[in-house]
Amino acid sequence: MDESKNTRYTLLQKLQSSEGEDCWDEFVKYYEGYIYVVIRNFNIEVEDSEELLQDVLVKIWKNLSTYSYDRDKCRFRTWLCVVIRNTVYNFLGKKSSRNSKQNVSYDLALEKLNLITDAEIDKISEHEWQNYVANMAWENIKSDFSELSRNLFEESLNDEDKPNSELAEKFGVAESSVRVYKMRVRKAMYKEIVRLNNELGG
Fold first, then answer.
1. What digits encode the pLDDT tens for the residues 114-132?
2. Contacts by residues 61-66 (CB-CB < 8 Å, ≥ 24 positions apart)
3. Which terminus of the chain is more solvent-facing, meaning fewer CB atoms within 10 Å of its CB: N or C?
């Protein structure tokens, strides 16, 4: 596939050349959930996460022109997580410097963030991205399957060690059918995850 024709890659290009709010709205639609989850990974309380999400989005809007798309050298999600980490660090630094008793939690969060290495941040970024894209993929394709297939697949995800024989008994189907249902959904999931990764260009 020609990378220059990639939908989300084109979206990043349009954002970098400031071609309208529609592109930005689409970017926010696809990425704000991921940004929020990464923020929460940095020991940020829920009440502060929404404020930080908005701060991060503003920083991305202002600095997107500095990002150069090259999946082999710097994935977009890697660049994104650096922006998130720096925004969170500055936020915690300001809250902590007020030095009041109510800001003890900010001090602790800042200390924990200082202990996180670049390699760990990269690991968080990759782990959360995989989860994020998998969840999005399932939301996109689950309506293509019967209620039985959906319930069976979700049950197998909730308890990955549950044998097919137990799933067969619970849902009243043959064990061979369980394998078929799971295989069909997994194939569709894999295809959709690949498509999303290509389109989102993360």
1. 888 888 888 888 999 999 9
2. 61/24, 64/12, 64/15, 64/16, 65/16
3. N
